[in-house]
Design brief:
The chain has about 375 residues and is α/β, with parallel strands linked by helices. It has helices at about 20-25, 40-45, 50-55, 70-85, 95-110, 185-205, 210-230, 240-260, 265-275, 280-310, 320-335, 350-355, 360-365, 370-380, and strands spanning about 10-15, 30-40, 60-65, 90-95, 135-140, 150-155, 160-165, 175. The longest helix is centred in the C-terminal third of the chain and has 30 residues, at about 280-310.
């Protein structure tokens, strides 16, 4: 058996009602808490009042993140807003972008900015030097798994790329996954976030850096995640299916944190660094092509993954083509496009996207994808 190492948050609390633990966890970390949320979730969510009540014993300030993924400029503005408050603790309640913002701020508020100084692949960048401000992750989507990862994905606007601030010091002090917080998610967000998690499960399973532990937890989560994504378009208020999706997303985060990802996420980094396209949608749209490209190398692993959820691959299909077909069916069920043509990405930018798709995720793909092959794959969806 191959040796491996594991990195995870100190504590993970999962299940309906887990949010009730927030007050005690926060109170043990200090008296001043910065509540980091998204603007839309804060305005509409029925649970925000409960969270404020749970934190009522603390001196509390809110930081509302702008729409979209965190960027070097949004982090600079957030630091300006939060620095004078000097929080003992950050509580991030929201989707992956909110969680990544709080994760980055936990380092930036302690060690100073700009954020570029800690971003991988940026000239002159350095590692996060030590322990950061404690932060608690409370995800409200079942998607990115950012609650359990050690990297914050940031769009470096001046470079036109997305890069990670990555360190074990960025792992959450505690994670609270309460599936009830996802019940109000609309169809499209449920789809894009859920398909992101499904892509993460698949890519972490077949990546070059996968290991027995990651494969075992993915095998236990892949079937429930697939079942949830098939059922939720018919009933978004099904708490059991929301719970399965939240579990799948949680496991996908642990898996990617300890095994890495593949080309679908590599392409998502390249496209997302240049254009405003939902990350989960890019991953889902690219996954069928990536599966087919990896079939010769990853076919046996994909067969085992299909078998883990009890599905029988038809005799006329391969495991890669079977899963690619399921992903396309799910895009249809959630009312999502099978390509990115609606975003009007210029064809003349394909070469640039292919080049900017290089990085840790592309490097983890089961086989190397050359520039010509990347461009062909992009041309089919742009």
């Amino acid at each position: 058996m191959l040796p491996f190492s594991l990195e995870a948050p100190r504590a993970i609390h999962f299940g309906a009602g887990a949010i009730e633990k927030l007050g005690g966890i926060a109170a043990a970390s200090g008296g001043r808490a910065l509540l980091v949320t998204g603007s839309r979730s804060l305005a509409a969510a029925p649970w925000i009042g409960q969270i404020e009540t749970l934190l009522s014993g603390l001196t509390l300030r809110r930081l509302i993140c702008p729409p979209g993924e965190p960027s070097t400029s949004s982090l600079a503005h957030a630091m300006e807003d939060a620095a004078s408050f000097a929080p003992d603790l950050l509580v991030a309640v929201g989707g992956g972008s909110v969680l990544d913002t709080a994760k980055a701020l936990s380092a930036l508020l302690r060690y100073g900015g700009p954020s570029e100084r800690f971003l991988e692949g940026v000239p002159g960048s350095v590692p996060v030097p030590g322990p950061c401000i404690p932060w608690v992750a409370v995800p409200t989507t079942a998607g990115t798994g950012a609650e359990v990862t050690k990297n914050s994905v940031v769009r470096a606007e001046s470079l036109g790329v997305k890069r990670s601030m990555r360190s074990a010091f960025l792992l959450a002090h505690a994670v609270i996954v309460d599936p009830r917080l996802t019940l109000t998610l609309p169809l499209s967000v449920t789809g894009t976030s859920g398909l992101d998690a499904l892509t993460q499960l698949v890519e972490a399973y077949v990546t070059k850096k996968s290991n027995p532990y990651v494969r075992s937890i993915v095998e236990g989560a892949f079937g429930p995640m697939l079942d949830a994504l098939q059922a939720l378009p018919r009933d978004l208020a099904d708490l059991e299916q929301r719970t399965r999706a939240s579990y799948g997303a949680l496991v996908s985060g642990v898996a990617l944190a300890n095994a890495g990802l593949g080309a679908a996420h590599g392409f998502a980094a390249g496209i997302g660094g240049l254009f405003e396209v939902p990350h989960g949608l890019v991953c889902a749209v690219m996954l069928p092509s990536v599966l087919e490209a990896n079939e010769e190398v990853a076919g046996p692993d994909l067969e085992r993954l299909a078998a883990s959820c009890g599905d029988v691959v038809p005799s006329h299909a391969t495991a890669a083509s079977w899963l690619a077909g399921r992903v396309r069916e799910l895009l249809d069920a959630f009312g999502l496009p099978r390509d990115l043509r609606g975003f009007h990405i210029p064809a003349e930018r394909i070469r640039e996207i292919a080049e900017k798709s290089s990085g840790s995720s592309m490097n983890g793909n089961p086989r190397e994808l050359g520039m010509a092959e990347r461009e062909q794959m992009l041309a089919r969806i742009i």
